[in-house]
Amino acid sequence: MSEIVVGVGTAEGAGLRAVRWAAERASARSARLRLVHVVDEAIESGGDARLLLAALEGARATLDEALEVARRVDPDLAVVSDLEQGSPIEVFERCSRTADLLVVGSDWHGGRRASRRGVHSLRVAAASRVPVVVVPDIDVAMRTGIAVGVDGSEVGARALAFAADEAERRGWPLIAVHAWDLVPLSGGEYGYGGAMVAVDDLTEAAHDVLEAALAQTIADRPSLEIDRRVIAGDPVIALSDAAEEAALLVVGSHGRGALARFLLGSVSHGVLAHLEAPTVVVR
């Protein structure tokens, strides 16, 4: 049986929304839902037994509340609960080794300064081996559409496949966004690799990239409604704008270097820092 893991940091706000989101997807996919709460290792290392006991009791109560939320979504849902102690990043990285999807809550959105939970969601997304859904405390119940960043890359293709599958399953349009952003030089031309390129040429090339990337999706899902958007501008802003009207945003991660698996690319990091909807980061 496939499994969706959700981090249960709190039974309020984004934490509650994350549990509900994960439960709804697990129900739709006939997957098992694993509720995971991590008591930070810093509490145990502090040496205060009463504080640790209180943290463990609070964690059990939070897991019980999360279980009630999941049961309200689907009384027959297969649910297991895990209470862990240690580093939250390490625990969720380990959980991601056997999961199909990892879901965490975050209260970092709308350009506001990150809280500790917001920072944790970024680090969990960077360390995970499977797609991660970061759920903000934003009500998207009245929205439809799955927005996805399309860039023609291999990881972008995986993000597109994830988004198209979700859009088709829900009967919603796919909002395919391709954004390009180059530094203008003069005379309406842009510098790129030492060359001067006209804006019209760049725009046409961007449309070609989008159409090429969508070709397989169109062939596989001919009835899927696709809203194509080619935008000259910052990809983070373009995707965040699309996310404001969508129920879900999907992006690919482009971490670079020797520690690529523990890094997020600038675009995926940017949209997670300005959450406007539940956001999936696909590796």
What can you see in these coordinates?
The protein is α/β, with parallel strands linked by helices. The protein folds into two domains: about 5-135, HUPs (Rossmann fold); about 145-280, Rossmann fold, CATH 3.40.50.12370. Helices cover about 45% and strands about 25% of the residues. Helix 1 crosses helix 3 (about 50-75), helix 4 packs parallel to helix 5 and helix 8 (about 235-245) runs parallel beside helix 9 (about 265-270). The chain starts with a strand and ends with a strand.
Poorly predicted parts: 109-117, 184-191, 256-262
- Summarize the main sheet: 10 strands, mixed
Average of pLDDT: 86
- Shape call: elongated
Distance between the termini: 22 Å
Oligomeric state, counting identical vs distinct chains:
single chain
The appropriate CATH architecture of the largest domain is 3-Layer(aba) Sandwich
According to DSSP, the number of beta strands is: 12
- For this structure, what is the CATH class of the largest domain? Alpha Beta
Number of helices: 9
* Topology order in helix (H) and strand (E) letters: EHEHHEHEHEEHEEEHEHEHE
CATH topology of the largest domain: Rossmann fold
Using the CA coordinates, give the radius of gyration. 20 Å
Strand order of the largest sheet: 3-2-1-4-5-12-11-6-7-10
Give the count of structural domains.
2
How much of the residues is beta strand, in percent?
A: 15-25%
Fraction of residues in H or I helices: 40-55%
Going by helix content, strand content and strand pairing, the class is alpha/beta
